[in-house]
Amino acid sequence: HEIPPTICGMPLKYVSLVTLAVQNAALSIVMHHSRVSTPPSQAYSPALAVLLNELLKGTISFLIALSRVPQVAERPWGRMSFGNIIRELPYPWTAPFWYLCEEILGPDCWKLSIPAILYVVQNSLQFVAVSNLPVASFQVTYQMKILTTAGFSVSLLGMKLSSTKWLSLCLLAIGVGIVQIQTSSIGSAPKNLAVGSAHDSAPIHFHVMSPLKGFGAVTAACFTSGLAGVYFEMVLKNSRADLWVRNVQLSLFSLIPALIPVLYSTPHISSSFLHDIFRNFGMWAWATVGIQVLGGLVTAVVISTSSNIIKGFATSLSIILSFLASVILFHFRITPSFIIGATAVLVATWMYNQPSTPSKEPSFPNSGR
Ligand code: C5P
Hints:
- This is UDP-galactose transporter.
- It is found in: Membrane.
- Keywords: Membrane, Transmembrane, Transmembrane helix.
- It is a multi-pass membrane protein.
- Its main location: membrane.
- By secondary structure, the chain is mainly α.
- It is 66% helix and 1% strand.
- It is built from 15 helices and two strands.
- The protein has helices at residues 12-36, 46-67, 69-72, 82-87, 95-104, 113-132, 135-141, 145-157, 163-183, 211-237, 243-264, 273-277, 283-305, 308-330, 336-352; strands spanning 6-7, 10-11.
- Strand 1 and strand 2 (10-11) form a beta hairpin.
- Helix 1 (12-36) crosses helix 7.
- The longest helix has 27 residues, at 211-237.
- Bound molecules: cytidine-5'-monophosphate.
């Protein structure tokens, strides 16, 4: 029996779940604020934020993986004959670096290309969604991820769902629907009065929100989240590679799709290229990127120590946190229909996470489960 990993004496599994809940609440609030609080002419580039997220996450994952090399170094060298080169190196202390490079560029690294592209698309859609919906509506609607994750777990992993779980999924859809109906009334607000929340007396923001666009983006993001999450879990639990090596591979494959929109949005590569792409990239933009990086790292830990399904439960907790924060920060008034919809989502999340018979959980041949 392996001893479960701990952090400051507490089980990593629970620390990561709580951190993810807090991170989720903080991300939608900070990201929403960073997008709606400035006029469009002063908006920062979301494509750059997605790229920086991948760069930072990849670098941190690489450093963590590097620090773990001595623990995994019993494995034989030489898959790409790096091992032979390393033995001849004049600087032996660089050996862990080369060893890690060999791991990262291993023959099955291509498997991460699929979730990598999906996550870049998802991270970009998230910016569209959060810029066009009030924070709490975004949070609740994004819970449809549970539905898509279940759908992909059934179709890709051959998982079977109990009737309670199907019932909870229907309740989830109804709850999300109720919230959606009440939020679409924002669309009837005067067009010249851009709004930042569902309530008439809310502070006026510069950004005109389009709930239809927001819901479209959040729905698409739910699909990429479900598919990418289940795929990542499958790759992780069907192989013995280190989580942090997998994360570096994920970030590496994300760099190309993340870089294309940044280059596309800057027609001339001149000496002021960096200055141009970083224009308006202020404190709130950096805060958004920082919280996203944390989220990516913690999500990876949660998928590896728990599962995508348990992750859904943790993020549903974050709805409560962001409700409270939205009331304080954005003068968001919680309407009765919002309470009914959100309650349905929370009850559904709770029902979905009730333990069922072990045989109904997805099985991963090499995971020991
Ligand atoms: O909403 P969801 O839980 O699907 O979001 C996952 C987020 O975590 C995405 O932003 C994705 O880029 C990130 N992630 C990551 N590394 C992983 C898994 C997810 O950075 N291994």
